[in-house]
Amino acid sequence: MTDTVTSYDQVPYSFYSFPETHPRRLHAVAHLLGLEAPAPAECRVLELGCAVGGNIVPMAYSLPEAKFTGIDLVASQIDTAQRFAAASGVKNLELRAASITDVTPQWGQFDYIIAHGVFSWIPHEVAEKVLQICAEQLTPNGLAYISFNTYPGWHVRMWAREAMRFHAEQFAEPIQKAAAGRDFIMALAQSPFTAALLKGEVQYLQGRSESYILHEYLESMNQPFYFRDFAARIAKQGLQYLGDAVQNGMIAAESWPPFSSWMEANRDDLIRQEQYVDFVRNREFRRALICPGSLTLDRTRMLERAETMQATALLMVLVSARASDMKRSMPTISATPATGRSGITVSVATSATKPLPVTPAAPLEVSSIRPSIAAI
Ligand SMILES: C[S@@+](CC[C@H](N)C(=O)[O-])C[C@H]1O[C@@H](n2cnc3c(N)ncnc32)[C@H](O)[C@@H]1O
User: Fold this and answer.
1) What CA–CA distance (Å, rounded) separates 288 from 367?
2) How far is the CA of 285 from the centre of ligand 1 (A)?
3) Distances (CA, A) of 344 to 27, 63, 313, 339, 367
4) 256 touches ligand 1 (CB under 6 Å)
5) CB 127: neighbour CB atoms within 10 A?
6) Ligand 1, atom 11: closest residue by C-alpha
7) Nearest CA residue ID for atom 19, ligand 1
8) Least C-beta-crowded within 10 Å: which of 24, 85, 248, 327?
9) Beta carbon of 115 within 6 Å of any ligand 1 atom
């Protein structure tokens, strides 16, 4: 039995779901970035390392005409996923206890291949196999989602991981290891020598379950990559980087002159631009979208494409009658009507003094008709 199987058998992963991996969301983001990916309603999806099914079971439930396959190395986790699927009445999902290395072209072609929280946790040759599966088994305009830990942000987290692993090695029981590791970091964060270094880690660790800490920090395998190296690896397999599944931070730094000058100097090199962004943001995690290298992508018409899209939103208005609540800083939602043809601007502000002023506005209307959608 491998270390991985033992570790997840002892402490299974929790049920996490990641909306950014849903085919509808992937399809929408791909559209913005210039790729017309397969229609989600009847697509074929493969999730690698699906653990207990927290992500794949709800996705299969929400797209009953699509076909889903999920695999995980750890049979006990697949058992749990199967029970979850059965209890939810999900029938369009095949779950297999198998290794990524067992996947063959006979499994067929997939429109969407998802590997969340897997690529950094597997040996190099298995990670290469993930890329090979994407290269050989994506449909011609298919899309893969591969998340991974990345440098430079993971340098500090690696420091924390190594300290935690060192301190926790004296404990045998996994949950005890996780708790001891976390307590060690919390204690170090009080020291004048390491307080500044560990500030972000303390925030990140706050409220995390022992199961998460164990698998995020203490697994024997955890390999972050620079984005630039990841991009070179996928290119070798005949794949290309489309964009990130969530807004990647370029926009936030856009008005900072040094950043603009680096972007301008590298305007013909997306990979270098993205690597600059990672240094500027000290990014530690990426959710890369990947497609066949043979596709020609036009990333220049994002705003025009947005105008062809529809929006759905779930916004909550918090109203409290209690005066004491009014004294606290409360969120207010206001909307700026679209100027010209495109865009709804939503700003979330806080006010310490005023009660909740809610402007009847487009975002709230969109939210009120959810799950229906509105044209922008
Ligand atoms: C950190 S967990 C992430 C689980 C899930 N994708 C998520 O993000 O919530 C990594 C998962 O990859 C699985 N795994 C590791 N090596 C694997 C392999 N060779 N083949 C299939 N699954 C593997 C583990 O069993 C574990 O469930």
Assistant:
1) 29
2) 16
3) 21, 28, 12, 8, 13
4) no
5) 22
6) 49
7) 99
8) 327
9) no
pTM of the model: 0.84
218 lines ligand 1 (CB under 6 A): no
How do beta strands 93-97 and 67-72 pair?
Answer: parallel
Which structure tokens are listed for 154? 């993971």
- DSSP code for 353: S
Q: Which helix (H) or strand (E) holds 149?
A: strand 138-151
Q: What does the pLDDT read at residue 97? A: 98
- From the list 146, 287, 162, the residue with the least C-alpha distance to 222 is 162
Ligand 1 in reach of 72 Cβ (< 6 A): yes
Q: Tell me: the pLDDT tens digits for 96-134?
A: 999 999 999 999 999 999 999 999 999 999 999 999 999
**Residue written as token pair 């502000």:** 349
DSSP string over 193-258? TTHHHHHHHHHHHTT--HHHHHHHHSSS----EEHHHHHHHHHHTTEEEEEESS--SHHHHTTSHH
Instruction: Please work out, in degrees rounded to the nearest 5, the angle formed at the alpha carbon of residue 31 by the alpha carbons of 30 and 35.
Output: 65
d(CA 193, CA 281): 24
Residue at token pair 């972000």: 200
Cα separations in angstroms, 108 against 6, 81, 90, 175: 30, 22, 21, 39
Cβ(245) – ligand 1 distance below 6 Å: no
As beta bridge partners, residue 47 has 70, 114
> For a substitution probing ligand 1, which of 46, 47, 72, 125 has the most ligand atoms within 8 Å of its CB?
72
User: With a 6 A CB cut-off, is 217 part of the ligand 1 pocket?
Assistant: no
Whether 21 is in the pocket of ligand 1, judged by its Cβ within 6 Å, is no
Q: What is the pLDDT of residue 308?
A: 78
- Checking DSSP bridges between strand 310-311 and strand 138-151, what pairing results, if any? unpaired
Distance CA 152, CA 157 (A): 10
Does the C-beta of 8 come closer than 6 Å to ligand 1?
yes
Kindly report, residue by residue over 293-321, the tens digit of the pLDDT: 999 998 888 888 887 777 766 666 555 44
CA of 245 to the centre of ligand 1 (A): 20
